[in-house]
Every structure is written in structure tokens, then in C-alpha cells.
Protein: DUF3243 domain-containing protein
Organism: Halobacillus mangrovi
Amino acid sequence: MSVLDNFDSWKSFLGDRLHQAQGQGMDQSAVSDLAYEIGNYLATSVDAKNDQEAVLRDLWNVADEKEQHAIANMMVKLVKNEGTQP
């Protein structure tokens, strides 16, 4: 089963990666830029596996670049308390 199959698993996976990046010294600006790149990749190259991912993809696709950065930053906020805490 892929972490993309279940939205809670996906959030936990992202939370773990966020904690790992921050633990290795990645600053908020770099996290934000990476979240934007991941969001863009997922929206253009990966089929949604559940309803939540489909909504995020649809929102991403109608957003301008500034709004896409906002979506990426909100996803970072959403997952900051997910996963295993360091």
C-alpha cells in the first residue's frame, strides 16, 4: 500500500519528512520552497488516490503561483504535528 492511498498516512509521511528536514537544519524558507515543488509535481504528475488529494489537485490547478505557494505553506502547517515527533 502506498502512502498516497490514505490521506492520514500521507499526512503522517509528510510530517515525518518535515521533522527530518528541520532536524537537519533546513530553514522555513527552504521547507516552503520544497513544499511548493512537491505540490507542483503531485498536481501535474501523480493521479489522486483519494478525495482529499483530488480536492488539493483541483485547488492547485486553479490557483496562480502565489496561491500555490499559500497552499504549499498550509500543507506544511497541516502536517507539522503529524508523524512521529523528533
Summary: Residues 28-45 form the longest helix (18 residues). The chain has a mean pLDDT of 85. Helices lie at 7-23, 28-45, 51-62, 65-79.
